Amino acid sequence: THVEGFRVYTRALSMILIKAAKDVFGKECDIVIENSLKKNLYCEFVDKIIPATEENLNKIEQRMREIISLD
Description:
With about 70 residues, this protein is of the alpha+beta class. It has helices spanning about 1-25, 55-70; strands spanning about 30-35, 40-45. The chain starts with a helix and ends with a helix.
């Protein structure tokens, strides 16, 4: 169904986000995905050592795109 497909898609992107963050900032980088806000996810760095700056988020996004392009 449409709802189940969206759930699977969201879960896959969550896993890619976590993998990309660890690739960019190292294995000590932990991201928590708290909950969904409509069609968006609320995420935060657990240890707050890595600031959620636009530059850092762009690095993660670029790595996510690289991972997806490997498919």
